[in-house]
C-alpha cells in the first residue's frame, strides 16, 4: 500500500442505549459508558494507524447527525486533537442509518401491527428488517440498499474533494448497516456477505477510494450470528 495514498476510515458508533426490539434507524439515544470508552479506544487505534502509514489525519471528521454517531465522532476528535491540529466535526444526514420514515422509533411489533391494519399495503415479508431491498411503504422510509447508496455517494464526494495522493486519513463515523451496504455498492463487499458480516463498535475499517471502486486496506469485519437481524 502506498504511504501517500488517501485512506478512508469507516467507524461504526460506540455501544449506545438502544431500545430493544426496535429498528435502530433514527433512535435518538446517547452512548453508554461502554460506548464512550470504545470511542476513546478508537482514537488510539486511528492515531497508531496514521503513524504506521505516515498519514495526515484530516482536520474534519464527518459523522451522522444521530446522537450516538456524533458523540463517537466528538470523542474521537477531542482525543486526536492537539494544540497545532484541532479536529472539527461535519455532521450530515447523508451518513445516517436506514430511515424507516414516519414509523421511526416504533417497535417491530408495532410496525407490523400498523401494516396489518392498513388496507393499502400488503403484509411485509417476514424478514423485512434485514431484507436489503425492502422499504416500508410510508413517507421517508428507504431500503437498506438505498441507505447504502446515499452513504456511498457522500463518502465518494468527500474523498474526491481531497487533494489526491496526499496521504490523508479521512474519518467517517456512522452506522453499521448503512456502511456495509455502501461497501457493497462500491464493490468492497459482496452482496452475499452483507448478511454474514457486521461491524464492531468503534473499530475502524480502512479503505481506498480510487475512482469509483473501493478497496479494503485494513480492519476486520465482525462475523454475524446466524440468528441475528440487521441493526446498525
Describe this structure in words.
With 232 residues, the chain is α/β, with parallel strands linked by helices. The chain has a single domain (7-223), classed as Phosphoglycerate mutase-like (Rossmann fold), CATH 3.40.50. It has helices at 33-52, 67-80, 108-116, 144-161, 176-185, 191-194, and strands spanning 7-12, 56-57, 60-64, 88-92, 168-174, 197-198, 205-210, 213-218, 222-223. Strands 1, 2, 3, 4, 5, 7 and 8 form a seven-stranded mixed sheet that branches. A two-stranded antiparallel sheet has the order 6-9. The two termini are 30 Å apart. The model has no long low-confidence stretch (mean pLDDT 93).
Quick tags:
232 residues; alpha/beta; seven-stranded mixed beta sheet; Rossmann fold
Give a brief rundown of this model:
With 232 residues, this protein is an alpha/beta fold.
Write the layout of secondary structure elements.
Layout: E1 7-12, H1 33-52, E2 56-57, E3 60-64, H2 67-80, E4 88-92, H3 108-116, H4 144-161, E5 168-174, H5 176-185, H6 191-194, E6 197-198, E7 205-210, E8 213-218, E9 222-223
Parallel strand pairs: 1-5, 2-5, 3-4, 3-5
Antiparallel strand pairs: 1-7, 6-9, 7-8
Amino acid at each position: 500500500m502506498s504511504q501517500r495514498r488517501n485512506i478512508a476510515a469507516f467507524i461504526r458508533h460506540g455501544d449506545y442505549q438502544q431500545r430493544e426490539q426496535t429498528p435502530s434507524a433514527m433512535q435518538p439515544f446517547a452512548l453508554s459508558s461502554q460506548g464512550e470508552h470504545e470511542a476513546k479506544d478508537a482514537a488510539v487505534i486511528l492515531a497508531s494507524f496514521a503513524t504506521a502509514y505516515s498519514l495526515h489525519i484530516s482536520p474534519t471528521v464527518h459523522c451522522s447527525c444521530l446522537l450516538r454517531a456524533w458523540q463517537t465522532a466528538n470523542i474521537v476528535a477531542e482525543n486526536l486533537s492537539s494544540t497545532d491540529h484541532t479536529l472539527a466535526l461535519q455532521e450530515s444526514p447523508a451518513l445516517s442509518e436506514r430511515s424507516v420514515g414516519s414509523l421511526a422509533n416504533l417497535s417491530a411489533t408495532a410496525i407490523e401491527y400498523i401494516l396489518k391494519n392498513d388496507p393499502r399495503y400488503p403484509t411485509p415479508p417476514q424478514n423485512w428488517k434485514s431484507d436489503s431491498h425492502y422499504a416500508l411503504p410510508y413517507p421517508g422510509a428507504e431500503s437498506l440498499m438505498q441507505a447504502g447508496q446515499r452513504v456511498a455517494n457522500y463518502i465518494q464526494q468527500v474523498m474526491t474533494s481531497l487533494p489526491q495522493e496526499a496521504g490523508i486519513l479521512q474519518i467517517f463515523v456512522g452506522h453499521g448497516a448503512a456502511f456495509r451496504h455502501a461497501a457493497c455498492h462500491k464493490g468492497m463487499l459482496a452482496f452475499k456477505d452483507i448478511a454474514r458480516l457486521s461491524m464492531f463498535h468503534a473499530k475502524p475499517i480502512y479503505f481506498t477510494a480510487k475512482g469509483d471502486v473501493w478497496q479494503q486496506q485494513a480492519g476486520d469485519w465482525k462475523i454475524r450470528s446466524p440468528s441475528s437481524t440487521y441493526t446498525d
